Amino acid sequence: MKESNISISVIKRLPRYYRFLENLKNNGIARISSNELSERMGLTASQIRHDFNCFGGFGQQGYGYNVPELHAKIGEILCVNREQKTILIGAGNLGKAVANKIMQRQSGFKLIGIFDKNEAMSGTMIHGLPVRHVDYLENFCIDNSPVCAVICIPSNDMKELTDLLCRLGIKSFWNFSNYDIAMVHPEVLVENVHLTDSLMTLSFLTSSKED
What we know:
alpha/beta; seven-stranded mixed β-sheet; two-stranded antiparallel ribbon; 9 helices; globular
């Protein structure tokens, strides 16, 4: 099956498989069956087999899955070693936390520049990278050709910024704002992270359980 035909729901489960397999590998577990993996992850064994079969299947009849090999293969599928050039806009508390997450482990992206409109932030260092004022953003992108932008700023500053970034060749966004980038720029890839939405969902579920 061509990867372009694989459903987004399968793709979104791959990082979870990768994380679970990494924990198993770090704990010295070299082999696991689909039934054992399903018990650990709360999925059905048939669902796991179906997901893996989308990429050719990795198990052996009567043996199960080789944990290190499967972990490496899923990492390859997710392109965690590609280090695609990435910039981050917004060096506040959220931006620093997100930068820390990107820098801590392989995720397929390499942070090469951090920008903020607050002049007081200019020159401060985050994980060895200097925070630059957004006035330098255009020249930086022209010189360094980043392909991804991480957005950690309020939505009211977004339209002009995203128009500029798309014009400068940004192909994908990790968007922590409430601005709908894909609505204005359907040609780019956008992964939205709405922290407040997640918290409100938890609020509903918590209240429902109490009631």
